From TrEMBL:
Location of this chain's protein in the cell: Cell envelope
InterPro entries the record matches: Iontro_rcpt_C, SBP_3_CS, Solute-binding_3/MltF_N
Signal peptide stretch: 1-22
Main location per the UniProt record: other
Annotated ranges, domain Ionotropic glutamate receptor C-terminal: 62-284
Presence of the UniProt keyword Kinase in the record: no
Gene3D superfamilies: Periplasmic binding protein-like II (3.40.190.10)
Domain Solute-binding protein family 3/N-terminal per the UniProt entry, residue ranges: 62-285
PANTHER family according to UniProt: AMINO-ACID-BINDING PROTEIN YXEM-RELATED, MEMBRANE-BOUND LYTIC MUREIN TRANSGLYCOSYLASE F
Record's protein name: Amino acid ABC transporter substrate-binding protein
GO CC annotations, alphabetized: cell envelope; membrane
Organism: Liquorilactobacillus hordei
Family of the protein in this entry: Belongs to the bacterial solute-binding protein 3 family.
């Protein structure tokens, strides 16, 4: 065989071999992306996890997330109008791990599950308590955070030492956040409570508490800690032995996305990223 023909045959064999190898691989060989999150650090894409995403997410390059943007320190707008908080850092880290972007869509809390079901967004990562009623409508991830129910009072009006549990709110007007169903159910069950007042946001409720329009406000401990640090000397709190696990909500038929996101969360917990986010927002590790 002439050298020219031999070279041509070898070249064609090499090209065909490389094509077969490339087609046989499910994981992209492109360089993994890295995203930096303020006071948390860098999060690197995991190609094996990004390969698990449903085709619509790969095509769009983003996950749309429904949030309540008035629930500090979990989800809220800072003084510059930018979204920030524990959940915001978490969803950024999840998106980075999956090699895509996150698009947070502020939504009225009462309509957040119907909006998820109507495909306005892909998931809800926004301090949503896992309840039996909600689980009938959505599919939840494993708990990524455990909230603790807390009674908050106006320090100048109420002696917190006299408040030890929910039954001590008998005869009082108590504020709750509409849509925080687990808390609403607990407060509605208080015998002899004067009135249960529902608010669209924790911010509005705590303003009324400061202005003596309600006697107490019941919410999760992270909310109490945040506001007590912001306005020292205004509020007092008592943490109850009632836990409320938070989960990420998905449509029930969106199992591929749920699996990919869950594996990303598991990876972030294992590599210490969740601990760093916790320490940034709460000054301690909630995962210990």
């Amino acid at each position: 065989m002439k050298k020219g023909k031999l070279f041509l045959v070898v070249s064609m064999f090499f090209l065909v071999s490389m094509t077969l190898v490339a087609c046989g691989s499910n994981v992209s060989t492109s360089k993994s992306k890295t995203v930096s999150i303020s006071k948390v650090g860098k999060v690197k894409e995991d190609k094996k996890l990004s390969a698990l995403l449903p085709s619509r997410i790969k095509k769009s390059g983003e996950i749309k997330n429904g949030i309540d943007d008035a629930y500090p320190p979990m989800d809220f707008k800072n003084s510059n109008g930018q979204l920030t908080g524990f959940d915001i850092d978490l969803d950024k880290a999840i998106a980075a791990k999956l090699g895509i972007k996150i698009n947070n869509i502020p939504t009225d809390w009462d309509g957040i599950i119907p909006s998820l079901q109507s495909k306005k967004f892909d998931m809800v990562l926004s301090a949503m308590g896992i309840t039996k009623e909600r689980a009938k409508e959505v599919s939840f991830s494993k708990p990524y955070f455990n909230g603790g129910m807390t009674i908050i009072v106006n320090k100048k009006v109420t002696n917190i030492k006299k408040i030890k549990n929910l039954s001590d709110l008998k005869g009082k007007t108590v504020g709750v956040q509409a849509g925080a169903q687990a808390i609403v159910d607990e407060v509605d069950g208080i015998k002899g409570v004067k009135q249960v007042k529902k608010y669209d946001s924790a911010t509005l409720a705590l303003q009324d508490l400061a202005n003596k329009r309600i006697d107490a406000y019941v919410d999760d401990f992270e909310v109490a800690n945040y506001y007590m640090q912001k306005v020292p000397g205004t509020y007092s709190k008592v943490v109850l032995n009632i836990k409320e696990p938070y989960g990420i909500a998905f449509r029930k038929n969106d199992s591929k996305l749920q699996k990919a996101v869950q594996k990303a969360v598991d990876s972030l917990k294992k590599d210490g990223t969740l601990t760093k986010i916790s320490e940034k927002w709460f000054d301690y590790d909630v995962y210990k």
